[in-house]
Amino acid sequence: MIDYFSSVLNSSSLPADFFGRIIFILQNYGGSLLQGAGTTLLIAIVGTIIGCIIGFIVGIIQSIPVTKRDSMAKKVIMKIVKGILTIYVEVFRGTPMMVQAMFIYYGSAVLFDINMTMWFAAFLIVSINTGAYMSETVRGGILSIDNGQIEGAKAIGMTHLQSMTNVILPQALRNIMPQIGNNLIINIKDTCVLSVIGTVELFFATKSVAGTYYTYFEANTIAMVMYLIMTVFFSKVLRLVEKKMQGPADYNLATTDTLAHTSGMVHFQTKRGGRK
């Protein structure tokens, strides 16, 4: 990449005006910026999906009730598990992703002699960070569902896991869908911190371009527009998904079965023998 930048530097002259420099950067480095944007989207989307799965698992475990009738072993195990999950959530919600990236990427090599690849480290960091935030969102979504539905599910013989997967979570998912979309938008922007571990995403590519000609303002202007296009596009898509999940504004009663008709099917005999 350095040789490529040097060859362009030697063979091209940088325009003096602002828009001329923008066009020059797009002509010579547009491919690198698009490739960086593609990496940004891939990491953000995959990290958000895996993070949502982690969040749902943690949220379900955190919502498992412990009653006085439960055995002592279950009480102890659940207390330990919930304590570990609480520490995980608090640590990753209370520290910046940039610090987490450097701690995990470099710390794993120093402490455990684990040399992660750039892709694995990027997916892992974004996923566990998103999972910490999503776990609290899922827990709040579960608590937003009326307790009567959980009691009704248990009354017909469902276990806690069955009541969660078949009754509670489908409704909670609709309630927390805006937050899932918000996490995706945040991840698209926050992947820029992964440049500290050598991830060649959009911000890393922008820094490389800007450092070649010292066009920091022009290069970052292009990056800002590219980030804005990506976030606005996915915001619109997620709003369409939310609207689809809400269903139609009104619901008509299905009356294919004659027993479901609300009127006109029941007749009463009058005193004269006619129908009323």
From TrEMBL:
Single biological process term from Gene Ontology: amino acid transport
Stored CDD domains: TM_PBP2 (cd06261)
Localization per Swiss-Prot or TrEMBL: Cell membrane
Transmembrane stretches, start-end: 41-64, 104-126, 216-235
Keyword Disulfide bond: no
PROSITE patterns registered for this protein in UniProt: ABC_TM1
Keyword Transmembrane helix: yes
Bilayer topology annotation: Multi-pass membrane protein
One Gene Ontology CC term in the entry: ATP-binding cassette (ABC) transporter complex
Domain ABC transmembrane type-1: 37-238
Keywords for this protein: Amino-acid transport, Cell membrane, Membrane, Transmembrane, Transmembrane helix, Transport
GO MF entries: transmembrane transporter activity
InterPro entries: AA_ABC_transptr_permease_3TM, ArtM/GltK/GlnP/TcyL/YhdX-like, MetI-like, MetI-like_sf
Family: Belongs to the binding-protein-dependent transport system permease family. HisMQ subfamily.
PANTHER family linked to this entry: GLUTAMINE TRANSPORT SYSTEM PERMEASE PROTEIN GLNP (PTHR30614:SF20), MEMBRANE COMPONENT OF AMINO ACID ABC TRANSPORTER (PTHR30614)
Protein name, as recorded: Putative lysine transport system permease protein
Organism name: Parasporobacterium paucivorans DSM 15970
